[in-house]
Hints:
The longest helix is centred in the middle third of the chain and has 12 residues, at 63-74. The protein is elongated, with a radius of gyration of 18 Å. It has a 5-stranded mixed sheet with strand order 6-2-7-1-8, sandwiched between helices. It is of the alpha/beta class. The chain has helices spanning 9-15, 63-74, 89-95, 109-112, 157-161, 177-184, and strands at residues 2-7, 27-32, 41-43, 51-52, 59-61, 78-83, 100-105, 120-124, 149-150, 169-170. It is 22% helix and 21% strand. Residues 1-21 and 182-199 have low confidence and may be disordered.
Amino acid sequence: MRKIYLSIFTSLLLMLGLVNVAQADEYLRIGMEAAYAPFNWTQDDDSNGAVKIDGTNQYANGYDVQIAKKIAKDLGKEPLVVKTKWEGLVPALTSGKIDMIIAGMSPTAERKQEIAFSSSYYTSEPVLLVKKDSAYASAKSLDDFNGAKITSQQGVYLYDLIAQIPGAKKETAWETSLKCAKLLRLVSSMLMFLNDQKL
């Protein structure tokens, strides 16, 4: 089961009174891609409660942004999104560029060596998404994907799971989930695996 966690390393320490905010001002800097709807995305205005993206004329919105606003309010801060590529989120947090990550980041053993994670705020079951007219559209088990070319977003744990699909051809990972969605013409950009399969 895929668990999406909210990483709040610096803000958790702040709440416990162990450290000061990375940048001592009125902002709580939240790292996210702002390219992973419905959790976070970029828009051109502040409608529907969107939050300013640092250094741009754009705004971020989505579930993650609304959670960030609540945490910032509880800490007496103003939320400020720092748009960051996926692979740059952990380094941005550990270097103090951002105060927290809210980006659907799973707590892998490797990540836990560098950052702390909060409790889960969202869970989902992995499934494999295929085109409607694909030769794999009638697949019933992982074995039915023998010979299939499969990929996902770069840097996410789902990419590592592809090796568990018998005979699947692991393709180069895509840089962002948005590119996956455009290339596959799918509403959802997150590669997941067959529903009800335990990998």
